[in-house]
Specification:
- It is an enzyme of class 3 (hydrolase).
- By secondary structure, this protein is α/β, with parallel strands linked by helices.
- The protein has one domain: Glycosidases (TIM Barrel, Alpha-Beta Barrel), CATH 3.20.20.
- Helices cover 42% and strands 18% of the residues.
- The chain contains 13 helices and 10 strands.
- Helix 10 runs parallel beside helix 11 and helix 11 packs parallel to helix 13.
- The protein is globular.
- Bound molecules: (3S,4R)-3-hydroxy-2-oxopiperidin-4-yl beta-D-xylopyranoside.
- (3S,4R)-3-hydroxy-2-oxopiperidin-4-yl beta-D-xylopyranoside (XIL) binds next to loops.
Length: 313
């Protein structure tokens, strides 16, 4: 049958997958990533702790490997992520930096990373998970030291390093209209009004079977109406394991709903699934007893969710 990426191309949609560079040694894993998807996101190897574990010591091996893979397979690369409170080395989080010092640290990290991949990585999650559930700003070393202005500063730095890159703010639990997505909406509106280089928002979409927010399409639409691109950046849809046939059918409907919400809105530019196949998903480690969240099963076979994506495209 027609690979997902060919169907997505007809819609001008980026159909992405999160890839762990070291798993590219697994032939079945690499084959699915190459043949089904026209975009890839580094699952971990572009995060701060991977790229700059000590100040001034940059490590590109994992990140380069996936960029090379993408180029060999004619895929876009969606860069994830530059400024995030998690997977952040303690030399940053506990460094005791003053405001000007922390801005210097951010500048070194952002300009070096974005600059290295200028022309090769065209999209960046510049800031990840900046919000609390109530829509206020999350406490982090960046917010504590620099206030909410750290977000505009990071976007300006990334834009300076690659004026052609499309710059995103990404978060979870912002798929439907709720207090948290209202906070993201207020921030996006305010950044645009100030002329800050923001081009899109990422809705992670780590969802639960049977619980796709009913306002997802309306939420995508309101960000698109600001002139922003919306990307579904990290979709997976988890359930209790072992998953019942019924749960897998519901999951297929849920994947279809997510794709239809994106396809219904001009300005929804892509959907990325957060992993190639269930054995490597982050879900069981983070949500014990949950899993089976991806379109390919433990044996790398397509699940009902895969066929639902296929049909939705
Ligand atoms: C996860 C990865 O999938 C795991 O391998 C890693 O151990 C932790 O991070 N939100 C994000 C992603 O923005 O970077 C996270 O990825 C999942 C939640």
């Amino acid at each position: 049958e027609t690979p997902l990426r060919d169907l997505a191309d007809r819609h001008g949609l980026r159909m992405g997958v999160a890839v762990s560079s070291h798993l590219l040694d697994n032939a079945r894993y690499a084959d699915i990533a190459a043949t089904q998807y026209n975009s890839v996101t580094h699952e971990n190897s572009l995060k701060w702790e991977s790229v700059q574990p000590q100040r001034g010591q940059f490590n590109w091996s994992g990140a380069d490997r996936l960029v090379d893979f993408a180029q060999a397979n004619g895929q876009d690369v969606y860069g994830h992520t530059l400024v995030w409170h998690s997977q952040l080395p303690s030399w940053v989080s506990n460094g005791g930096f003053s405001g000007p010092e922390l801005e210097q640290v951010m500048e070194e990290h952002i300009s070096t990373t974005v600059g290295r991949y200028r022309g090769d990585i065209d999209y960046w999650d510049v800031v990840n998970e900046a919000f609390n559930e109530d829509g206020s700003f999350r406490d982090s070393v960046f917010h504590r030291t620099l206030g909410e202005g750290y977000i505009a500063t990071a976007l300006e730095m990334a834009h300076e390093a690659d004026p052609n890159a499309r710059l995103f703010i990404n978060d979870y639990n912002v798929e439907g209209i709720n207090a948290k997505s209202d906070g993201l909406y207020r921030l996006a509106s305010s950044l645009l009004a100030q002329g800050v280089p923001l081009h899109g928002v990422g809705l992670q979409s780590h969802l639960i079977v049977g619980q796709v927010p009913s306002s997802m399409q309306a939420n995508i639409q309101r960000f698109a109406d600001l002139g922003l691109e919306v990307v579904i950046t990290e979709v997976d849809i988890r359930t209790s394991t072992p998953a019942s046939q019924q749960a897998l059918q519901q999951q297929a409907n849920d994947y279809r709903t997510v794709f239809e919400a994106c396809l219904a809105v001009d300005g929804c530019g892509g959907v990325t699934v957060w992993g190639v196949a269930d054995p490597h998903s982050w879900i069981p480690d983070t949500f014990p007893g949950q899993g089976a969240a991806l379109p390919y099963d433990d044996n790398y076979q397509p699940k009902p969710a895969y066929w639902a994506m296929h049909e939705a495209l």
